[in-house]
Amino acid sequence: MKKSDTLKGWALASPLLLVLLAFLLLPIAMIVVVSFWQATEFAIVPAFSFENYQFLFSSPVTYKVFWATLRYALITWALTLLIGFTVAYYLAFHIRSNAAQTALFLVCTIPFLTSNIIRMISWIPFLGRNGIANQTLIGMGVIEQPLEWLLYSDFSVILAFVHLYTLFMIVPIFNTMMRIDRALIEAARDNGASGWQILTNVIIPLSKPGIMIGTIFVLTLVMGDFITVRFMSGSQSANVGRLISNDIALLQYPSASATSVVLLVTVLLIIGALMRFVNIRKEL
Amino acid sequence: MEPRPRSFYALTAFFILFVVFLYGPTITIGILSFQGPQGGLTFPMNGVSTYWFHNLFQQQAVGDIWGAFRRSFALGLMVMIATVVISVMAGLAFRKRFTGSGALFYLTIASLVIPSILVSLGVGLIFNQIGAKVHWATSGFGAQLTWTLPFGLLIMFAVFNRFDKRFEEAARDQGATPWQTIRHVVLPIIAPSVVGVALFGFSLSYDEFARTLLTAGSHNTLPLEIFGMTTNVTKPVIFALGTLTTVFSFAIILAFLATLWVLGKRRARRAG
Q1: Count of CB contacts below 8 A, A vs B?
Q2: Which GO terms describe its biological process (chain B) (predicted)?
Q3: Is it true that domain A64-283 has CATH number 1.10.3720.10?
Q4: Alpha carbons A208 and B265: distance in angstroms, whole number
Q5: Which ipTM was obtained for this model?
Q6: pLDDT (tens digit per residue) in B47-67
Q7: How many CB atoms lie within 10 A of CB B158?
């Protein structure tokens, strides 16, 4: 490595570094510091106290809420993986023309660039007590009373997560699948492998990096969420993000910070474990 | 062409269902925003009117939607420009390994996986402690960059991983300076991806909620304004707002796609 290369590299990367220092590293450091502070009714007071953590770890609510968060993340992960993989597989291996592939890929990705909040709101007419789902089911004679658990329930929370985040599975998995050498699949077929065998023995193992990247995205998005759970559960369910945002609303910044630190450590541990299985830089 | 296997038809059906799932709700509120004045939040339609759109344009109780839109638009442009410039520079930097480049890369990835609300909280706390006022154009701008820059950089990585270095070498052999090489060879080649980064920068900023929550100050951006309305969804007026902002997002996406298409055409003409 030449010294001038390093100098040039840092010169070009310095704006990125400055932004991340000022708006990511420093703020996180600040959260860690404030998590040891204390709060009065009106202000936060510098201190070095483990009170916030003691309270956090002694409260049964904490464990319940962390478990609920993890559960949301795992269920959403399983569903988005199943749907995302299937869609990516279809696009990568069953669509033959490049133009159609690009067009359908865009169809899948465009919603990512529209408002998440609006996409959540748009489930109301569908899931509500007198919504389309209930009207249809009653009309078909499947049920007599409208189902109450469609909206403002864990069901609608998970539905919204899947709706918002499946895309984060499709894109990386599709990207990895497009790099699979088609000759490998030919070879498998020539050797008498069935379509299913090709899928399980060739395509799935080779798609693992994409699956890992998608997993990282979905897990972190769901674990850090607070708005989807709040809105789609009608404020009836809790997750860690809501715990934090509730404390913020009450101006209990030290307590919010302590919860944030625990959440951050949890997320980083999970991501760190997953990163061992994939080299992100190579997969782009 | 070989015949389609049976699985193709099952997968096509699955894909169509997925697309309906993806777009169905949005289209539904698009239709419902044309409810009559007495209409409710779901079907049946109680007449057809543009009442709720007019309602949106009138002076109203819900807040300053147009001001919020203007702020979101301005912030989107600021974030877009910053994201493009910083990502392209960093993308160029990362083409050669340099001391510390690995750490910077992982810091960028961390920016992507750290929960948004933490960024919001941390930036808010810092501004509080140094006695600065949070404002969408300062703290909000910076907080949003921590979300758009990783995407910008990842796109640049994808581009430069596929970049044929022989073009540059050829330019150098012909006596081009490093700056000339970048300006006349590298930038034109990566232009379509830069347009993509710009689209991401604008759209992600325009729709960003969590990172702006505690960093926008007393003047709301549009997503914050919409969120304020969601605590009390009783009238289709919010559907009208949702329809308008979604139509706006689609228009932006189409404008960018059109730009890409024109770029492609021009390039094909030159090559031909």
Answers
A1: 265
A2: transmembrane transport
A3: yes
A4: 36
A5: 0.90
A6: 888 888 888 877 655 567 888
A7: 16
